[in-house]
Design brief:
It is a single chain. Helix 1 crosses helix 4. The chain is an alpha/beta fold. The longest helix is centred in the last third of the chain and has 24 residues. An 8-stranded mixed beta sheet has the order 5-4-1-6-9-10-11-12, sandwiched between helices. A two-stranded antiparallel ribbon has the order 2-3. About 25% of the residues lie in helices and about 30% in strands. The structure holds cytidine-5'-triphosphate. The site of cytidine-5'-triphosphate has 15 residues, from strand 9.
Length: about 220
């Protein structure tokens, strides 16, 4: 099977030395890419600036901004069987990028931010030839918010994690996730290493993708 996995944060430039970003380390997405590759799948890893080294065996595509990620996903997705959108995409970018370093001021100022494009929501909704796995980073109302993203972003399944905890999720080597499926079913993987969660996710995704492929060819 051909996997496309996105990982890490995006960076949205303010000026040549500053940017808007988030705390994503890339560890969860890299672990999924590694687990998929170890399970014998072909893997393209599209990644923003992460804190970990890319796994062996995956084709690596480096991106910085949400617009670059958007274009890379649209280029790679038509050729894949499974798209795993693990990247923590910036929801906003500065309205303008200063070409020179902005000088320090003594008075407060406001930075105007405009929404970025939602990559998952921009994918084809009907006759899609690949499975879409979304992620949901939540600090509250995890199930409600994840179910809403599953439907509104038209994912086949969504992996929700609580990012309010300091000992799991963002930047950590561990995580605890609940996977919500369109059938209404859900499955929780209790707190363990991201590598173990990744292996479990790859198994679940492969099983689901095989079913879809069988349906398509049948
Ligand atoms: N995502 C995306 N494009 C964006 C923002 C997010 O494709 N511009 C994807 C992420 O890769 C993830 C899913 O949407 O698979 C949910 O991301 P998350 O950050 O949890 O939610 P948001 O859609 O950003 O909503 P909110 O910040 O309100 O929770």
């Amino acid at each position: 099977m051909r996997f496309v996995v996105t990982a890490g944060p995006t960076r949205e430039a303010i000026d040549p030395v500053r940017f808007v970003s988030n705390r994503s380390s890339g560890k969860m997405g890299y672990a999924i890419a590694e687990a998929a590759s170890a399970a014998g799948h072909s893997v393209t890893l599209i990644s923003g600036p992460a804190t970990v080294a890319p796994p062996d065996g995956a084709e690596f595509v480096s991106i910085i901004t949400s617009d670059e990620l958007h274009d890379a996903v649209h280029r790679a997705a038509p050729e894949c069987d499974v798209l795993v959108m693990c990247a923590a995409v910036s929801d906003y970018k500065p309205a303008t990028v200063a070409l020179q370093k902005m000088k320090k001021r003594k008075t407060p100022f406001a930075l105007e931010l405009v929404p970025t494009r939602d990559i998952l929501a921009s994918l084809p909704k009907v006759n899609r030839e690949f499975l879409v796995v979304g992620f949901a980073a939540e600090t509250h109302d995890l199930e409600l918010n994840a179910q809403k993203k599953l439907r509104e972003k038209n994912c086949d399944m969504i992996v929700a994690n609580d990012v309010s905890k300091t000992d799991s999720g963002l930047e950590s080597d561990e995580n605890e996730v609940t996977i919500f499926f369109r059938s209404g079913e859900s499955k929780t993987i209790s707190r363990t290493s991201k590598k173990i969660i990744a292996r479990e996710l790859v198994k679940i995704i492969s099983k689901m993708s095989e079913k879809c492929l069988t349906k398509k060819s049948g």
